[in-house]
Request: fold
Amino acid sequence: MTRDNASSGSRRPGRQVIVDAAVRCFYKQGYEGSSVRDIAEDAGVTPAALYHYYASKQDLLMDLITRFMASSIDRTEDALRRAGPDPVARLFGAAQSHVLWNASDVASSFIVNSEIRSLSPANREQHIAQRDRLQRLFDTCVEEGCDKGVFTTPWPHEASRAVVVMCTFVARWYRESGPLSPEEIAWRYGHMALSLVGASRGPQFEPPTYESVNGR
Amino acid sequence: MTRDNASSGSRRPGRQVIVDAAVRCFYKQGYEGSSVRDIAEDAGVTPAALYHYYASKQDLLMDLITRFMASSIDRTEDALRRAGPDPVARLFGAAQSHVLWNASDVASSFIVNSEIRSLSPANREQHIAQRDRLQRLFDTCVEEGCDKGVFTTPWPHEASRAVVVMCTFVARWYRESGPLSPEEIAWRYGHMALSLVGASRGPQFEPPTYESVNGR
Amino acid sequence: MTRDNASSGSRRPGRQVIVDAAVRCFYKQGYEGSSVRDIAEDAGVTPAALYHYYASKQDLLMDLITRFMASSIDRTEDALRRAGPDPVARLFGAAQSHVLWNASDVASSFIVNSEIRSLSPANREQHIAQRDRLQRLFDTCVEEGCDKGVFTTPWPHEASRAVVVMCTFVARWYRESGPLSPEEIAWRYGHMALSLVGASRGPQFEPPTYESVNGR
Amino acid sequence: MTRDNASSGSRRPGRQVIVDAAVRCFYKQGYEGSSVRDIAEDAGVTPAALYHYYASKQDLLMDLITRFMASSIDRTEDALRRAGPDPVARLFGAAQSHVLWNASDVASSFIVNSEIRSLSPANREQHIAQRDRLQRLFDTCVEEGCDKGVFTTPWPHEASRAVVVMCTFVARWYRESGPLSPEEIAWRYGHMALSLVGASRGPQFEPPTYESVNGR
DNA sequence: AATGAATGAGGGTTCATTCAT
DNA sequence: AATGAATGAACCCTCATTCAT
Reply:
C-alpha cells in the first residue's frame, strides 16, 4: 500500500515524481541533510524543474507533511465511523488503522514525526494543529470508554497519548521484510491499546485476514 | 537533575560549555540545521576553539548521543537492581526510571531519538548497538514476567517495544511548566507499562514523593 | 505628453505592452535587476510570450534606448528649425525642448542615462553615436552664438556639455506632483542655458502658456 | 588622487583590496551586473573571504557610497571654509572643489550617481539624506549670494541644482588622458557656476596652478 | 587555549532562454 | 499568439574546516 494522494490537488505527474524523491531523500538524510540537488537527481530532473512545482524546499516538506497528516486524520475518522458506538471497538479500530497507515509509508511517517523542527514557524503551527486534531480523536475515544466504565485507566489523557505514540512509532522499526504482516502488527497493537486503557486482558477480536482490515 | 558526565572522559570545563551549546542548538535547529558557528556563538567561543575539543561536528554529536545512551542504560540497570526479583517491581522500576531520565533532559533525549540519521555509518552502527542493549533490558524484563505467568500479554516482544517507545517519547511533550511533576508522570507510566503487559488493572505502587524515586 | 513610437517599426499592440512594462521595471530595478519574468508579469504575459517580440532582454533594452534617443534628436532638430536663425532663440528653444522631452518620460530618460553600461559593446557603440549626434546639435548651436559674438563664454565646449547634462537630468528630480509645470521648468532652464553661455542676465522670453511650447 | 579613506574606520588591508575591486567591477558592469565572484576574482581573494569584511554585497555597495558621499560633503565644507565670506568666492570654491573630487575618482562618482536604485530601501533613505545635505550646502551658498544681490538669477533653487548636477557629472566624460587637467576643468566649472547664478560674465579668478587648488 | 583570516565545496534559488504543443 | 515545462549556468551566500599566529 502506498500513499494515495487522490484526495490532493496535485495530480500532475511531474509533481508526484518530485514528492516521491523528496520522501526518499528526507527519509535517508533528513530535511537539512538533503540538498535540492539530491532530490532533483533522485527524481531525475534538474534542480530548477523542482521550482516549477514548489516555491521552495520548505514548501515541499510542508506539502508532504500536511498530506500525510490529513490522511492520518481521515483514516482514523473512517475507522471510528466503521467501528460503531462500542468504545472497545472504536479504540481497537482507531489504533489498528493508525498502525496500518504508518506502516504503509514508513518513510513519510518517519519524516512527519522527526522533521517538525525543520518547519518554518508558520508551518509548524499549522502542523501542530493537525497533530492535535488527530490526538483529540483518540482522546475522545478513550474518554468515552472511561465515562461508560468500559476503560478502567485512571489516566485517560496519558494513556491516549501513549497509544498514539506507540502506534505511530511502529514505523520506526517495521520493515516489509519482517516476520509479521502489517495487518498482524496492527491487530496486536489494537489489543495493546485496549490493554493500556484497562479494557481487556487478552485478544478478543478476530485475527486479521487480508480482506478484513481497513475496508480492504 | 542534569546530565552527569562524571563517567565521560571530558571533565574540562571548556568542553562542557560546548556540549551544552550543541544540545541547545541541535534541539532547536537539528544537527544539519546547526552550523558550527551557531554552536560556537551559543557557547561564547570562536568556531576554531571548538576544534580544540572535538575533531569535528560529527564527533560532537556522537559524543553527546553516546553519553546520553550510556546513562540511559546505566540508569535502567540501576533501577532493575534496586527493584529486586519481582517482575512487576522490575518493569515498573525500569519504566519509571526511563521516563524520569528522558524528562530530565528533554533536549538531549530529543536529539538522541531524532538525529540517528545524521550519524556517520560507523557511528550509527555503534549507536544502534547501544539502543539494542537498552531495549534488551526491557525485553528480558517482560519475558521473565511472562515466563513466571505474572504478565499475560501474548506479545511480549511488541509490548516491550511499546513500553520503551512510550516512555522515551515522554520527552516529546513533557515541559517543566506542565501540571505534572516528572515523578508523577513516571509513576503513571510505570503503571501503564504494567497495563500494557497485562500485569495490573490499576495503581498498586505508592504514589511518588520527592525522595522516593530513582534514589533521590 | 507620452512617448510616440509612430516612427518605430513596432506598432503591434502586444509589443507596446511589453516595452511599457520594461520601462517600469528597468526604472524601478534597473536592467540587471529586472528579470524577464518581472517584465512579463508586469505586462501580464508569460515570459515566453516576450520572445515573440524581442529576441532577448538586451534587444528590449536597446530598442527602448534607441527610440528614446531618436526622439531626443528629432525633437531638438525640430526646436532648432522652429527657432530660426537667432542663436539666442536657438539655444533657448533647444534647451527648453530637451527639458520638456526628458520630463515627459522620466522613467525612460532615467534608463537611457544610466543603463549604458548594460548595453552590449555593439549596442553601446551605436548608442554613443546617437548621444554624440545630440550633443553636437547643442555644440553647433553654442559655437554659432560664440562666433557671432552673442555668447560670451570662453569655453563653448564645456558650456554646451553642461547645458545638455543639466537639462537631461531634470528627469532625476522632476515629479508630476511638484510645484512647477514642465513648461515652467523648461522655460527657466532655457534661460539658465543662456546664462551659462553668457548670453543674458535674466528672462527675456515670454513665460510659457500651455500652447506656446514645442508646437503644442 | 585616489580615494583617501583615512577618515574611515576600515584600515585593514584586506578590506581596501575588496573595496577597490568592487569599485572597478561596479563601474564597468554595474552593481547587479557584477557578481560576488567577479569582485573576489578582481581582488584576488575567494568569494568567501569577502564575507569576512562585508556581510553582503549590498553592504559593500553601501559602504562605498556612504564614504564617497561623506567625503563629498567634507570637501565642500572645507572649500566653503577656505573661501571666506564672499558669495562669489564661496560658490566658485565649492563648485571647483566638487568637480575636482568627482574627477579624482571617476569610477566611484559614477557608481554613487547611478546605483542608488540598487540600494535597499533603508540604505537608499540614508544615502538620500547625505545627498540632500550636500545639495543644501550649495543651496545656502546660492541663496546668500542672491540675498546680498551678488547673484542675479531669479531661480536660485534650480540654478543650485544645475550647478551640482553639472559638476557631479564631469565624471561622466572626464578621462585622465583628456586635454584638460582636472584643475583646469574645475576652474572653468567654477566660473560656469557663477555664470549660471548670474554672478559674472567671464573669468575673474586666477587660473589654476598645481599648488593653488583645494589646498594642494 | 584561542583567534582571525582564509578556503573549496556546496547550499537554496533564480536566471535568460528554448521548445513542443 | 501564446503557453507550461524544462534546462544549464549562474546567482549570493554559508558551510565545516584549517592554520599561522
